[in-house]
Amino acid sequence: QVQLQESGPGLVKPSQTLSLTCTVSGGSITTNYHYWTWIRQPPGKGLEWMGSITYSGSTSVTPSLKSRASHSRDTAKNQFTLQLFSVTPEDTAVYYCVLYRSSLEIWGQGTQVTVSS
Q1: Which pLDDT score is estimated for 90?
Q2: d(CA 28, CA 72)
Q3: What's the CA angle centered on 78, arms 69 and 21, to 5 degrees?
């Protein structure tokens, strides 16, 4: 069974770069047709799809974050990473990494990130 685990700093200062890593166990991030995604939920708001990196390494980013977000992966460590540049308090949220494959959807437990000075 594939499991995902987010890790990150918890607290980030405004204007800094947020780096979050999702460690995958029980399966490979290079398995065909697996789409590795980041989703966040700010307090009191709905879920926001941030972007993804595919099994082949192709990336996509939601238009509103195109200039501030970057997705990458480390196949040796079976991890994928989100970097969010120039964060503001509006980036405070619970961040989830999610696997999508056909009808399969597996979520990590989420990690709280707070942007505050």
Answers
A1: 97
A2: 15
A3: 35
